[in-house]
C-alpha cells in the first residue's frame, strides 16, 4: 500500500520506533532510521522487507542536526512522505528534586524535536499534497502519573501540537495524528521495571506484574507491531479524514 512512499521514523533503532519502521516497510515504504548507538541490526531487519533503508544519527535535541537529517531524506529519498515523531527519553523524580538539565532534555527530545521535524517536512508534503505526520505521544499525554512531570508535560504538549498542526493542514492532503501507547515493553520501560525490582527488592517478574496492575487493565503489554499497524492504518486512504486525533492504545488505561 505504501510503495513509493518514504517514512522517516525518529528514535527507530529499537523499541516502538523500530516496530513502526518495520511495519511500514512491510507495506512497501522506504525508511529513514534515526537513533543512537549501533543501527546496523535495525537497518538489516528493515531492509529484509525489500525496501530502501537509510540512517541518520541526528541528535534530536539539536535543531541543526535535525535540519541535516531532513536534508538527507530530501537528497537520498526525494523527501519525507510519512513522518513519525517517536524519539523520547524519560526521568522519574518528584518535581522539587527534578534535575533541571533532565527537564530541558526531555522537553527538547520529546516535544521540541517534533516541532523541528514537522516544520521542515511540511513544505515537501504540501508540494505533493500528500503526507502523514504521526506523533508518538503516550497515555501520559492524556492522563498524568506522579514523578513524571517532564514526561507528562512533553506528551501533553505533543497532543496539543498535533491538534494545532492538524487544523493548519485540514484543507490539504496531509493528516496529523497522535498515537498514545500505554505500557510497551521497550528498553525504556524495562529499565523502569528493573529499577523498581531493585528498589523494592522483588523479582523482576513481580515488578513487571505490579506495573501492569497499576495502570493497564488488560494486564498485557502493547506491542510495537500493534502500534505499527495503527501507523499503517493512519497512512491509508481510509484515514484521510482522521485529523488531530490522539488515539490511545493502552489496554484500557485511560478508560478508568
Automatic annotation (TrEMBL):
GO biological process terms on file: monocarboxylic acid metabolic process
A Pfam cross-reference name: adh_short
Family as reported in the entry's similarity comment: Belongs to the short-chain dehydrogenases/reductases (SDR) family.
InterPro entries found in the cross-reference section: 3-OHbutyrate_DH, NAD(P)-bd_dom_sf, Sc_DH/Rdtase_CS, SDR, SDR_fam
GO molecular function: 3-hydroxybutyrate dehydrogenase activity
Name of this chain's protein: 3-hydroxybutyrate dehydrogenase
PROSITE patterns per the UniProt record, alphabetical: ADH_SHORT
Superkingdom field: Bacteria
